[in-house]
């Protein structure tokens, strides 16, 4: 059985503890590899290596750093199929999705930040004849990067690429539930010529490795993507240490459909925004609000398309949904479906676990599920489920739907469907949300700021925002 290793000081090494955690294939529920059960000793070694590597890496010509990251991006692209298969086995997502979205995006993340860092410029503020200010940006030192399981390599590289490109050394922890592609990346980083200690990857549990990264006094910046509860815990430790924190947290995204929408596009895209990646994307819309005059027509068309989605073996192209990432997560989603029924909801389609025959019978599968008849403020409509479950309900006025949409503690993303230009702008401006898509969903330009408001997070990733997060500004004022 394959044993994943940590990357510390340019070497693939076992954990100090010598012990490993089981890694499950969610498609069949079987253990297929072993993950290092690392602890604070491994994090300590990684921090030491990163601190040793920092002086040379941080002053290396930007172009040289950029070339190493571009080489890494090219190596991932060359190995795309191998990475895509590994990602699907580890996470349960359909192979067609890993191949077309997850791995290509990891390639782009490195390429984008390798080149973006070349364009980050310092500012100058003249005070006329009196003085001139110039503001420099320097890397922070050792950055801690912690990522979740839903888009494993995609989100892992979204953090480490800007951290490295701006001259920091990194101690990173992927989710213990989906560590495999980070391990493959570690191998390629050595091949790409990344100097020893610049990138360190420590595998293991959140409450051991994650906590050790967050509480390490020599890691002054932490970039975290994951659940809101974990974000809270991290803040509790890091805030009194005055660390820089970037927190990308949970969501409960509204999808608002006005009667004047392009109906067919709205239905098709809502199917995608509800159930892509088994609904395990922080940007998935989980609450669908439809203007009453088209509610019945929309509901019928939507449910018909959802019923046609196949669930099963992630390796087969015909399956639109693969497996849920883990058994505990599957059980959590099923418990929310039960709660929705208790709260008076009616299941229009789905609602059940899927048990394939044969080798995959122990895998974790759930039917795409649509529920109606729930109040906007019930628990099902307020708490993040993070699975293939959406609710649908009618609304009469713009004011009413904005109350529904803004009623949760979250504020990550929202989608609005209308052909009415003025209304589109007005509603977008009134939504409590870091990202709004009008007549589309998940259309991403890596230059744009990405992140949420309220309990969906603090700070923004993307574009120069991330490069700014991983650098410290210094203003120098010269009296003329
Ligand atoms: P978790 O918060 O459980 O875990 C995220 C990462 O943090 C994992 O690597 C985890 O390790 C680690 N971790 C857990 N506990 C601690 C701790 N005490 N200190 C430091 N690190 C810790 O989230 P999930 O992995 O379950 O991911 C799903 C969540 O992520 C959802 O809420 C989703 O909305 C959110 N998300 C947000 C996105 C955004 O951009 N806003 C994007 C994608 C997901 P381990 O795996 O070992 O527990």
Describe the structure.
By secondary structure, the chain is of the alpha/beta class. It folds into two domains: 272 residues, Aldehyde Dehydrogenase, Chain A, domain 1; 193 residues, Aldehyde Dehydrogenase, Chain A, domain 2. 41% of the residues lie in helices and 22% in strands. It contains 15 helices and 23 strands. Strands 15-18-19-14-13-20-21 form a seven-stranded mixed β-sheet, with helices on both faces. A six-stranded mixed β-sheet has the order 10-9-8-11-12-22, with helices on both faces. A three-stranded mixed β-sheet has the order 1-5-4, with helices on one face. The protein is globular and about 65 Å long. It starts with a strand and ends with a strand. The relative contact order is 0.14. The protein binds NADPH dihydro-nicotinamide-adenine-dinucleotide phosphate. NADPH dihydro-nicotinamide-adenine-dinucleotide phosphate (NDP) binds next to α7 and α8.
Topology:
Layout (H helix, E strand, L loop, with lengths): L1 E2 L2 E3 L2 E3 L6 E6 L4 E7 L3 H20 L2 H17 L1 H12 L3 H25 L3 E4 L4 E9 L2 E5 L5 H14 L3 E5 L6 H12 L7 E3 L4 H10 L5 E5 L2 H11 L5 E5 L4 E5 L5 H13 L9 E7 H16 L19 H16 L3 E4 L3 E2 L10 E2 L2 E4 L6 H4 L6 E7 L2 H8 L7 E5 L3 H10 L4 E4 L18 E2 L4 H7 L1 E9 L1
Parallel strand pairs: 1-5, 8-9, 8-11, 9-10, 11-12, 13-14, 13-20, 14-19, 18-19, 20-21
Antiparallel strand pairs: 2-3, 4-5, 6-7, 7-23, 12-22, 15-18, 16-17
Helix pairs in contact: 1-7, 2-4, 3-4, 4-5, 9-10
Bound molecules: NADPH dihydro-nicotinamide-adenine-dinucleotide phosphate.
NADPH dihydro-nicotinamide-adenine-dinucleotide phosphate binds next to helix 7 and helix 8.
């Amino acid at each position: 059985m394959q044993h994943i290793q940590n990357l510390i000081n340019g070497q693939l090494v076992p954990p100090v503890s010598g012990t490993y955690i089981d890694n499950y294939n969610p498609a069949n529920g079987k253990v297929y590899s072993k993950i290092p059960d690392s602890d604070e000793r491994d994090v300590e070694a990684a921090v030491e290596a990163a601190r040793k590597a920092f002086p040379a890496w941080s002053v290396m010509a930007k172009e040289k750093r950029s070339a190493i990251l571009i080489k890494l991006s090219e190596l991932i692209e060359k190995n795309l199929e191998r990475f895509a298969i590994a990602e699907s086995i580890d996470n349960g997502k359909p192979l067609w999705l890993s191949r077309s979205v997850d791995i290509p995006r990891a390639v782009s993340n490195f390429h984008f930040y390798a080149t973006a860092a070349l364009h980050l410029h310092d500012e100058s503020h003249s005070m006329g004849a009196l003085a001139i200010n110039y503001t420099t940006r320097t890397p922070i030192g050792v950055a801690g990067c912690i990522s979740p399981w839903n888009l494993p390599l995609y989100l892992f590289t979204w953090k480490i690429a800007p951290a490295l490109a701006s001259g920091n050394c990194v101690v990173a922890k992927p989710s213990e539930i989906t560590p495999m592609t980070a391990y493959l990346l570690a191998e390629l980083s050595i091949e790409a010529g990344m100097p020893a200690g610049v990138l360190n990857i420590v595998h293991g549990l959140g409450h051991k490795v994650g906590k050790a990264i967050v509480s390490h006094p020599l890691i002054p910046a932490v970039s975290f993507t994951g659940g809101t509860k974990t974000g809270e815990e991290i803040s509790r430790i890091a805030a009194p240490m005055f660390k820089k924190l970037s927190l990308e947290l949970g969501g409960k995204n509204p999808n608002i459909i006005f009667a004047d929408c392009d109906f067919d596009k709205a239905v098709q895209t809502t199917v995608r925004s509800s159930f892509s990646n088994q609904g395990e994307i922080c940007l998935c819309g989980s609450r669908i609000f439809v203007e009453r005059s088209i509610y019945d027509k929309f509901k019928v068309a939507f449910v018909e398309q959802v019923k046609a989605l196949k669930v099963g073996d992630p390796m087969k192209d015909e399956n639109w949904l693969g497996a849920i990432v883990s058994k505990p997560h599957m059980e959590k989603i099923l418990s929310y479906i039960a709660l929705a029924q208790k709260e008076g909801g009616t299941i229009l389609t789905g609602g059940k676990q899927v048990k394939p025959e044969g080798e995959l019978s122990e895998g974790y599968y759930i039917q795409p599920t649509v529920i109606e008849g729930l109040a906007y403020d019930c628990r099902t409509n307020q708490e993040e489920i993070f699975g293939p479950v959406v609710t649908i309900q009618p609304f009469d006025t713009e004011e009413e739907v904005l109350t529904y949409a803004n009623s949760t503690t979250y504020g990550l993303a929202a989608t609005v469907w209308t052909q009415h230009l003025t209304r589109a702008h007005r509603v977008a401006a009134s939504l409590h949300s870091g990202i709004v898509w009008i007549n589309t969903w998940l259309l991403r330009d890596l230059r744009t700021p990405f992140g949420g408001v309220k309990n969906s997070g603090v700070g923004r990733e993307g574009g120069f925002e991330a490069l700014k997060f991983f650098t410290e500004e210094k203003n120098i004022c010269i009296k003329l």
